């Protein structure tokens, strides 16, 4: 079954307008907490629709408020991220980035546009009961913009009772969705390991304590943590991504550093891996007569949907495109998403909308990526149908 990509909720004229917005945002990418032009565009569009609009929330965040024409006490938050990546775009089409070293390589331009499209449709026909909060968030890309909006009073200033997010997903066909009843994305923590030995001449290793040798054993041993500490049905990743040390062929250095990332889907797994990694690092170094320490850089928590809210999203998406075009409970991603902070504060769900094949033109964080404009009406229609489903 092939899903319709242009549901009636989003007209052809609005689709063209949304494509123009999306390409304009793509051409003028702004990275974390510098989304000044984008947030201004968003705020002006919301104000033009007659929405009560609040700016500078968590830095450059924007919240638009739309009250339905029927009385109701439902307060629903819909979130889109606005920031670009620090990435040099290699596309040559007309709407390619005009800011060298900055690129919308993850589709946040499309996310912002789909939510603006939904705001447009609902503002023109607010036939629902309750209040909708359109949340345009800065700094999703490893800068925790969601957390900063929360710290700036997002849920105190606005009585949002439930919150929803959506991300485009390469590899899922255009016109399809994926909904998880639990874990969607992983937590992410960085770590820095410092190994101290005794340096000297490489031809006299018996007089030294070689931190490079220690580093090699730590690198190998870390892979046993997931394999021998987590249940086989659980998921976890430890990747050492950088090694620094040494200066010459004939010099064994005093110090070596290792750096990497930990990804898990459950908080208990997250803490277990961190505990075991620290033990392994310290004791492995000690066994070779060296010393080592580890410092963690906490990142995003895991993105966990509430099942009841996910089931609501499943009902809405299947009503929009049919059951055969919605994946229920697919494997989660070990990538990370700071919408997790919002889901820790309020019940809700985060879903994936298909962006088409996973070639380099669709692969996230690829310098050739471009959002699929054909799914803009479907994304906007999903938001509209979700509001209509919840606010009755």
Automatic annotation (TrEMBL):
InterPro entries, per the entry: Amidohydrolase, Bact_exopeptidase_dim_dom, Peptidase_M20, Peptidase_M20_dimer
Domain of life: Bacteria
Keywords: Hydrolase, Manganese, Metal-binding
Organism lineage: Bacteria, Pseudomonadati, Pseudomonadota, Gammaproteobacteria, Thiotrichales
Protein name: Amidohydrolase
Co-factor note (free text): The Mn(2+) ion enhances activity.
Residues annotated to bind Mn(2+): 106, 108, 141, 167, 365
NCBIfam families referenced in this protein's UniProt entry, alphabetically: amidohydrolases
Classification via SUPFAM superfamilies: Bacterial exopeptidase dimerisation domain, Zn-dependent exopeptidases
Cofactor(s) for this UniProt protein: Mn(2+)
Biological process according to GO: diaminopimelate biosynthetic process
Species assigned in the record: Thiothrix nivea (strain ATCC 35100 / DSM 5205 / JP2)
Domain Peptidase M20 dimerisation: 190-285
Molecular function (Gene Ontology), one example: metal ion binding
